[in-house]
Design a protein that fits this description.
Layout lengths: L3 H15 L4 E4 L4 H14 L3 E7 L7 H8 L6 E4 L1 H8 L5 H15 L1
Parallel strand pairs: 1-2, 2-3
Helix pairs in contact: 1-2, 4-5
């Protein structure tokens, strides 16, 4: 069984060793990126630059919840709604929609 306290201590120490200067982290609001953001903030504090892209595709109220939850880490929010929704316009093939979605995420960063 994983000892949570030991895991957190080890993760924070590793981030401290590997992060140099300001460090950008992408926050989607999911479990993985949320945990990584909290651990990184614990490790490097104000040197962390967490970024969330509002794609306009989240569930109602989800973006507001993310903003509220992560306001203490100085979350930067990029309004990408127009770009993401425009990229989906006319695309009716799921593979192409997903490819365009990820291309837009990379472009925004």
């Amino acid at each position: 069984m994983v000892n949570t306290e030991t895991f957190i201590e080890n993760a924070v120490e590793r981030i401290k060793r590997e992060a140099s200067g300001k460090t950008l982290i992408a926050l989607s609001g999911g479990v993985d990126s949320s945990i990584c953001t909290v651990l990184a903030h614990k490790a490097i504090g104000k040197l962390l630059v967490p970024v969330y892209i509002d794609t306009g595709l989240m569930r109602e109220g989800e973006t507001e919840r993310i903003k509220e939850t992560f306001k203490h880490v100085n979350l930067q929010v990029i309004n990408g709604k127009d770009r993401f929704l425009q990229a989906l316009k006319g695309n009716h093939r799921p593979g192409r929609e997903k490819k365009n979605h990820w291309r837009n995420i990379h472009t925004n960063f």
